[in-house]
Amino acid sequence: MPAILVYQTSTLLFNVAFYVAIVAQAASAALAAGRRNMDLFGVCVLACATALGGGGTRDVILGHYPLSWVAAPHLLVVVCIAALATVMLSRFMHHLRWTFLLLDALGLVIFSTIGCDVAISMGLHPIIVIISGMITGIVGGILRDILCNDVPLVFTGQLYAIVSIIAGGVYYGATVLGMSYDVALISGIAVGMTLRVVAIVYNVEIPKFSYERDPR
Amino acid sequence: MPAILVYQTSTLLFNVAFYVAIVAQAASAALAAGRRNMDLFGVCVLACATALGGGGTRDVILGHYPLSWVAAPHLLVVVCIAALATVMLSRFMHHLRWTFLLLDALGLVIFSTIGCDVAISMGLHPIIVIISGMITGIVGGILRDILCNDVPLVFTGQLYAIVSIIAGGVYYGATVLGMSYDVALISGIAVGMTLRVVAIVYNVEIPKFSYERDPR
Amino acid sequence: MPAILVYQTSTLLFNVAFYVAIVAQAASAALAAGRRNMDLFGVCVLACATALGGGGTRDVILGHYPLSWVAAPHLLVVVCIAALATVMLSRFMHHLRWTFLLLDALGLVIFSTIGCDVAISMGLHPIIVIISGMITGIVGGILRDILCNDVPLVFTGQLYAIVSIIAGGVYYGATVLGMSYDVALISGIAVGMTLRVVAIVYNVEIPKFSYERDPR
Q1: Probe site for chain A from C58, C151, C209, C213 (most A CB atoms < 10 A)
Q2: Is the dihedral of CA C5, C7, C9, C10 positive or negative?
Q3: Cα(C146)–Cα(A143) distance, rounded to whole angstroms?
Q4: Residue range B119-150, pLDDT digits in tens
Q5: In CA terms, which of A159, A168, B210, C173 is 20 to 30 Å from B163?
Q6: What CA–CA distances, in Å, run from C106 to C20, C110, C113, C135, C196?
Q7: Which residues of A lie closer than 8 Å to C, measured between beta carbons?
Q8: CB contact under 8 A, A208 and B67
């Protein structure tokens, strides 16, 4: 299989989904950078941290070396091109807030789904498989938001972390039930995207925890 | 020894202390989350990062795999239950600021004390043993505060990092002097908690460094 | 070679440059801490994260164990002494903003240059060599700024990440061309420092990306 296919043990669809997620996360980072008046190199650094930081954090936590972008450095080039293209195209975009949220959702759901695979291949516990997917899905966005000095999206607003868990759970459940990898992947992505978009449109929220007195 | 005992080479008291610290850190994260209006899944994510992030960071830095919660996934469940229970109980709590500071102190001191053990078992230098304890003790709280977009508690206010170093130092010194693990553990925790509580009550501060002119 | 020389496979000049960079980064952290009213232990923690966090992050990402300061714990002592000395001397300093920027630049350029070496010794791809240098160069400052709750310097203002890439590129290119390590090192540092200082003095900026509409 050519070196450009990073998920070498999985199907072509896995690799296509992986690149879609990386490009989506890079684009979401470029849009976030625009609010912060960053220069174009800062945009590239932020995009790499966002698009590759989730999988990288998962690999470091699981001791799964080498990291994907260290083994496949062309991923860094793909991320930078995607980020710079977003910068150039953004002046023609309308509805930037929606674009940002949809790109973020796409990265979240795809990474959550295919992120389960590393833990499965290492023979880890089902809980860790789901958590591995969640780390892959949410950490990139968390890094983006921390580097932009925001409270991460995962901690505010509508369904987010639970979308990641459900997308990963659908994928993992489908593979356990004997479905093909491709069907499991599409199922997980479809369920996750639907849930996240519905949550944004109808402002579906999990009960929040707040109190008036300040603990500090 | 049953799998629920995570510190398999150490005593029962070590494991009890470990669970107490994890629950305390999860609860401190839940209280911090309440100020930020987070949803219940966000609370769980923040609690896991806070309660397991210190030991995880230490293990990644020392190359000590697998991480405790990857080997013992039930820890994630314990943390989430502790965080959600805190959310439910917090409406009946008074003095939330004090509760937050005491839970944070308990996690700080216990993790600092038992965190030395991993470095000792790897045969590392005494300085690294103390630093290993300090990383285990303070990084969870730092992650909690960064994810909530605060300046970390360790960098403000009363004695904090030095409490961690002294608690770890007492534990390590006691074991070097031939005391039993349990006595060393209790000594480290007692000295550390006393110091931290005295520092908060009497507002004991290390000399601070500040200047008027802004370097940026 | 004595244990105090951390880069044991390289020349004496490498080790001198390494210590200069560590001291410079520790001092930049101490100056940043002064703005935040931190106590002296907080200053030491921040200085260690800043001075050793870049190389540590690189080593964790590349799976290059043990980390330099775990193998050579005296580095922690050097960093703390440098930070506390900066605190004591800062009251006699003028032009703190310039001092801060120059110390930060020195750490950035030296770490970027010598940070390429680890990746070269591991036989990694040229892109990864440059990125390894960049991570070593910029992550310490990013950690410093995040822990101080600022938007990292790398994402604002004048040429920064590109200085790191060029300094590393000059070093790597010179070694590939067969120059001695010392000549390559001095070339990389000289080019990088010149570029960064010119960028600050003449306010050289890469085109920035910004738009008026807010995506969130």
Answers
A1: C209
A2: negative
A3: 11
A4: 999 999 999 999 999 999 999 999 998 888 77
A5: B210
A6: 8, 6, 11, 15, 9
A7: 30-46, 56, 60, 65-67, 70, 73, 76-77, 87, 90-91, 96-97, 99-101, 146-149
A8: no
